[in-house]
Amino acid sequence: MIRFYGEKPYRAAVIHGGPGDIGGMRPVAERLGKTFGVMEPIQSQYTTIALVMELRRQLGLHIKEPITLIGHSWGAWLSLLVASCYPFLVERVVLVGCPPLEEIYAGHIHERRMKRLSKEEQERFIWYMKHMAAITAEGWEDLRQLMIKADHYAQKPNASSYAQMDGKMYERVWPEAIEMRRNGNLMRYIQSVACPIHIIHGDYDPHPLEGIINPLDSLCIPYRLQILQKCGHAPFDEIFAEERFYQILEQILRS
């Protein structure tokens, strides 16, 4: 499924995170759709390779020229994989709240999140992360509140209410993605990305920025970096960073 915003030609596609954060990039698509043609592909497959192929099909059906992929969190990785495998489809990639690209930096995420939660909140958070497919509706709301506290600087009221989490997708796809990072395959794909890479990252995001730029620097992969102040993992949900985030995206799409 694909949701469309604005008018053709489609200049950008927003790629949601998770894996399984269905509709997570809807506010970005709606905002950019006021000025540009924007696609919001919805992920529906349960393996990494199937999601790459699905996005390739979704893009191929509706674009005539290479498009900008704006990927949030896991969606940043998926965007890089598609840009690597199907370079003729992608004009540039924008990484928003990208997770670390190498395993050595991954432990910092958990450490930073735990410091922002009480001991009892930590226990609930860890349980949810291990049992995503079994979480009840009440549990999802509890996890959402924990994520707000752990991942955001100052989240807007009612933010994330537009998203629906597919726990089954998370439990199946994320371990595959982590293994790709651990064994170095993720960076091997990224090394072949030929299009421009833009990085937008919040200064309060628990995902360490050095986990993105250091691996890219080590392979002499060029990128453009924008750091947002008073901003956590999802700039489009942040009170202080939202407007600057959209200014940057609009500048990128007009360039």
Automatic annotation (TrEMBL):
Residues 52-238 form the AB hydrolase-1 domain. Transmembrane segments: none annotated. InterPro entries: AB_hydrolase_1, AB_hydrolase_fold, AB_hydrolase_sf. One of its GO terms (cellular component) is membrane. GO terms for molecular function: hydrolase activity. The keyword Disulfide bond does not apply. It comes from the Bacteria. Keywords: Hydrolase. Pfam families: Abhydrolase_6. PANTHER family: AB HYDROLASE SUPERFAMILY PROTEIN YCLE, MONOACYLGLYCEROL LIPASE. This is AB hydrolase-1 domain-containing protein. It comes from Anaerotignum lactatifermentans.
